[in-house]
Amino acid sequence: MILIWQLLRKHISIFELAIFFVANLIGMTVILAGVQLYSDLKPMLSGEQALIGSDYLVITHPVKRVGINATSFSSEDIADLVNQEFVESVGAFSASKFEVDGSIVFNGRRLSTMLFFESVPDEFLDVESRGWKFDANSSIIPIIIPRNYLNLYNFGFSATQQLPQITEDMIKSVSLDIRLLGNGMAGEFVGRIVGFSNRINTILVPEEFMVWANAYYGGVESVEPTRLILKVGNPSDPALMAYLADQNYEIENQPSESSKALFILKVCVAIIICIGVLFTVLSLIILTLSIYLLLQKNITKLENLVLIGYPPARVAVPYNLIALVLNLTILAVSLVIIFLSQDLYMAQLSEIAGYEISSSPMVAILVGIAFTALIITFNFFIINRKIRSISRKR
Questions:
Q1: How far, in Å, CA of 330 to CA of 348, rounded?
Q2: What are the residues whose beta carbons fall under 8 Å from the beta carbon of 80, sequence distance 6 or more?
Q3: Judging by beta carbons within 10 Å of its beta carbon (0-12, 13-18, 19+), is residue 205 exposed, middle or buried?
Q4: pLDDT at residue 21, as a whole number
Q5: SS3 breakdown of the chain: % helix, strand, coil, rounded to 5?
Q6: How many other C-beta atoms are found inside a 10 Å radius of the C-beta of residue 239?
Q7: Mind listing the pLDDT tens digit for each residue in 133-190?
Q8: How far is CA 209 from the centre of its chain?
Q9: Percent of the chain whose predicted confidence (pLDDT) is above 90
Q10: How many CB atoms lie within 10 A of CB 269?
């Protein structure tokens, strides 16, 4: 082995190997940095503590003329939405088919108005409350209202009517007098506000209450929804937007900026990884050309070694060792760079998230080992193939 190395090392170009080392180091570092960064950001992008999670869209049919329009969604419409890959789940709004009168005595004055109720499946609510249950034997109706209703009162109506502003806890302690009329029936109930929604802009009651009240006061067993709420992974997805436009559906709440930011982040990470792969491919090309050039320079010595009885596999060992040492060194240096960089940004990520983010370097290590194994295998293949071709010529 020492004799073979002494014979072949003369034409080894340190400069060419250095170019391969630097190019492959850049490529490997960029790839591992992109993979590790996405792994570190994943807790902030998905799961229970996600800063940017799935988003919700409320869709309707457009109202085209004055009067009664066909704006309900059929079961076929809903089934088609469920089958779309960009839609995670679909919920239907159920509207009240009876009259609702609400009143409240506040600051010595009785305020009354006509109301309407709607309901959605509980999984689409952004409010958690122990009181969100309807008991048919009780006269209490749990209610969730949009938080902007309270803001409109505090910063608009109260100022014009010289009424005091109120807090969320205060309004939760107030009882609403609710009167339901329909189907020849009338009933007195007490409304209790149990939460405030930032997601759904309507007055919500539990689904079980809506089913019971529509049957009792509305005389209907089921109602085709006129609004649907969609849970989607990316509300800015072009495929989703194209589908809604093709079906002539209108979106009540436009996609949030956070969801757009998530989509841009994923695209940026993908671009980073692609750049790393490009650098790695270019470095492989450089190494392949360097090896072929090196073998060509030593072709006479290689032929003589084969002639005196050295098997091609043994002749290839020095070149395989060079490729092995180079690639393992590149992997080690890349991982060191990734670990040092990770220490710099993990503290900032935890501060942004508001909780301690734990991250394991195993993702970068496993991806790096897999990539390095592929590169080394490729290097061994081209080296042994070239030397075997030389031996066959003799």
A1: 28
A2: none
A3: buried
A4: 79
A5: 55, 15, 30
A6: 11
A7: 888 788 899 999 988 888 887 888 777 777 778 888 888 888 889 999 998 889 999 9
A8: 34
A9: 15
A10: 16
DSSP string, 8-33: HGGG--HHHHHHHHHHHHHHHHHHHH
Q: Are strands 185-197 and 175-182 parallel, antiparallel or unpaired?
A: antiparallel
* CA atoms lying within 13 Å on the CB side of residue 316: 21
Both tokens assigned to 351: 């501060």
Residue 19 Ramachandran class (φ > 0 left, ψ -120 to 50 alpha, else beta): alpha
Extract the tokens encoding 335: 């991982």
Distances (CA, A) of 190 to 34, 51, 187: 56, 37, 10
Task: Report whether pLDDT(354) > 60.
Answer: no
Q: How is residue 38 written in tokens?
A: 């996405």
Residue 71 gets the label, from left (phi > 0), alpha (psi -120 to 50) or beta, of: alpha
Q: Residue 145 contacts by C-beta under 8 Å, 6 or more apart in sequence?
A: 193, 196, 197, 203, 204
pLDDT number for residue 254: 61
The single residue listed with the structure tokens 């170009």 is 13
Angle at 84 between CA 82 and CA 90, to 5 degrees: 30
Which of 289, 320, 318 lies closest to 301, judged by CA? 318
Question: What residue segments make up the domains of the chain, in order of their start?
Answer: 2-49+260-393, 55-254
Tokens (6 digits) for 221? 């067993």
